[in-house]
Amino acid sequence: MNTVPRFAAGGLFAVASLVALTGCATNVNTVERAQPLANANYIADKRVVTDNTLARTVRVNSVNQDTVSGNLLKVQVTLENLKNNARTVRYKFEWVSDTGMAVGSPNETWKVITLQGRETTTISTVAINPRAVDFVFKMSE
Amino acid sequence: MTTATFKTALLGALVLPAAFVFTGCQSNQVRVVDSKGPDAIVTSGINPQDWSNAADQLVGSLLTSGALDKAPAQPAILAVDRIINNTTVNVDTDLLIKKIRVALSQTGKVAVTNTMGLGERAVVASEASELDEMMTGKKAKVIAPHYTLYGKLIQQRQAINGVTQ
C-alpha cells in the first residue's frame, strides 16, 4: 500500500525532469548548398586536450586559412556545440613567426562566444603582423 | 542509530560539502587580474573587452576587404579624427582609437597621423606644416590623407517586463 504513493512521486519527478531538461534547449537548424562551391584551404592541425569536458561540449571541426591584403595570414576555425543547450566558451589566437618566435599582437585577447544548441559557427581573425606564419588557437570554458 | 539521527547526519553530510563548493573558490584578497584575460569582470558599461572586440572587428574587416591596398600610394595615409560619444557613459575614446592605430601601424600598410583631418585637425596640420618649413627651410607639402577614421558611439536603451537592454 505504501508503494503506490512512491511510484506516483517517482513518476511525477521523472516527468518534471523531462520537461526541465528539454524546455531550455536552443538547437539550431541549418540549410546550405548540397554541393558547396567554396574551395576552402583546410589545414591539418595538432590538438592537445587538457579539458575533456570542454572537448565533449565544443568541438573544433576544421581550420582553414587564407592570405588577405597581400601578405597577412587569416585563420578561420569552425566550432560545433555538441550539446543541446547554449554553451559559452572563451577563445584566443596567438601568432608565431617563421622562426618559431611568438609574435605579439594587440588583438591577442581572450574573447567570448556563445553557441546555441547544436550550432556550428566560425570564428576568424587576421594576423596584423606580416611576420606571422603560424598560429595557436586556445579555447577555455 | 535512530531514523532522526540518521537523517540529521545525512543532511549534514550534504550541506557541508556544498558549503565548501560554494565558498572554496572565493577569494577576498586583492590580486592582479589580466585585463585581457578570462577573469576580467564584465560591467554594464563599456568595458575593455568591448573596446578590444570592436577594434579587432574593425581591423579584421578592413584588412580582409583589401581596401588599404587600393590607396594611391603605399603605405596609405590614415588620418584619425574624432570619435563622438553620444552615450550617457563617460568614456575615453582614445582607448578604442589607440588599439586601432597600433594594429594598423603594425601591418605596415598604413601610416597613421592625427595631425591631418577635418575641422580642428586641419588647423593642426597647417601648423605642423609651418613648423616643418621653419625647421627645414623648405616649403612643406601637406599630403592629404587617403583615408579618415571617425566614428560615433550610439546608445539605445530598451526595457520591457523588467529587462533592460
Structure write-up:
Chain A has 141 residues and is α+β, with helices and mostly antiparallel strands. Chain A is built from 2 helices and 7 strands; from the N terminus they run H-H-E-E-E-E-E-E-E. The mean pLDDT of chain A is 86. Chain B is of the alpha/beta class and 165 residues long. In chain B, the strands form 2 sheets. Chain B has a 3-stranded parallel beta sheet, covered by helices on one side. In chain B, strands 4-5 form a two-stranded antiparallel sheet. Chain B is elongated and about 100 Å long. The N and C termini of chain B lie far apart (56 Å). In chain B, strand 4 and strand 5 (163-164) form a beta hairpin. Classes of the chains: A alpha+beta (141), B alpha/beta (165). Chain A binds chain B through residues 68-70, 72, 74, 90, 105-112, 124-126, 128-130, 140, and chain B through 36-38, 49, 52-53, 55-56, 59-60, 63-64, 66, 68-69, 99, 102-104, 106-109.
What is the strand and helix layout of this fold?
The complex is a heterodimer of chains A (141) and B (165).
Chain A: H1 3-23, H2 52-57, E1 58-68, E2 72-81, E3 87-97, E4 102-103, E5 111-115, E6 120-126, E7 132-140
Antiparallel strand pairs in A: 1-2, 2-6, 3-4, 3-5, 3-7
Chain B: H1 3-23, H2 48-65, E1 76-86, H3 94-107, E2 110-113, H4 120-136, E3 147-154, E4 159-160, E5 163-164
Parallel strand pairs in B: 1-2, 1-3
Antiparallel strand pairs in B: 4-5
What labels describe this entry?
A: alpha+beta, four-stranded antiparallel beta sheet, three-stranded antiparallel beta sheet, 7 strands, elongated, B: 165 residues, alpha/beta, Rossmann fold, two-stranded antiparallel sheet, 4 helices
Task: Describe the structure concisely for a colleague.
The complex is a heterodimer of chains A (141) and B (165). With 141 residues, chain A is an alpha+beta fold.
Strand order of the largest sheet of chain B: 2-1-3
Strand and helix order of chain B: HHEHEHEEE
Pairing-aware structural class of the strands and helices of chain A?
alpha+beta
CATH class type of the domain at 46-154 in chain B: Alpha Beta
CATH topology grouping of chain A? Immunoglobulin-like
Strand content of chain A: 35-45%
